[in-house]
Amino acid sequence: MTVLGIETSCDECAAAVVADGAAMLSNVVYSQIEEHRRYQGVVPEIASRKHVEWIDGVVEHALADAGVHLDAIDALAVTTRPGLIGSLLVGLSYAKGLAMARNLPMIAVDHVQAHFYAPHLERDLSYPYIGLLLSGGHSLIAQVHNFDRIKVMGATIDDACGEAFDKVAKYFDIGFPGGVAIQKLAEGGNAAAYRFPRPSLHKGDHRFDVSYSGLKTAVIHQRAQFHDPEYQDTLPNLAAAFQQTAVDIVVDKALLASRETGIDCIVAAGGVAANTYLRRRLDAEPVRTVYPSLKLCTDNAAMIAGLGYHLLARGERSQLDTGARARVGEFRARYP
Ligand code: KG4
Ligand code: ZN
To answer: Which of 147, 74, 180, 151 is nearest to 303 (CA)?
Structure first.
């Protein structure tokens, strides 16, 4: 079954053609980074308008790259949650139009669930593993037992990990997207210059949760309080200390999850998984680590088409009155 995937949940306009949930015939991603750079953050109104402008060309590009005509597509898979509602609606409306015009089956796909499926598109990866999803919109630690059997162990109670990078970078005018800019600046810095507090959320069922608003506030408004006078109070030192604390917060929880469950493989995905300090830290631990390639780590439509295939193959279909859902938190409620 050849599935055309469509992904427009945030600021990436993406389409991909995947055969039988495995063979990526194409994986086209048009990033809107340049459209949002001057605002140092994604502007929802601009994001949805750009998706409207681009989606048709992006789908054509994906079909051309795959070397297939629309006639060869058996079904459509589209992200319907979570994300920016206006952006989600563009991809969903486009998919509905195509489904109706071509009489094609359509399946709604959860973006977070698809992120956990992404590594299977490029390697034989056996279940279970601890999935660590760290991006601008999500911070999740989960046991992944199958494409549809996921147990969320922890999540952020406030900002997402990547969001903290973005907000700190925006405040200090370091660059956009924040994660890459902070990592670069941190290379010339010394993390020992500040001792930032780490949240202590270790109660019962919430012991795997993380929090970033305290760290963000400390870095932005209270740096003097946490500065070690033996070192200079500079932006590179600040970037290094923030990066180390932000990564340690979530890596420590992932390692705790691994120890408690006895699952000794950690798969890190999402934009923050590209962070070199994060990889160094995880790789130093006695666990197996898997990082999808950057193209599959960040938002893409191949993961939507890949997961969509498995849902379609077991007979699921979405109707043309399917709606989009914005809220990130609902994923945890569905996969407790
Ligand atoms: O997965 P992604 O491309 O998009 C979604 O948010 O879904 O992730 C983007 C996030 C941004 O917050 C960005 O600052 C962060 O990932 N990021 C990084 C790095 N590269 C991207 N954070 C830390 N270190 C990096 N090298
Ligand atoms: Zn994402």
So the answer is: 147
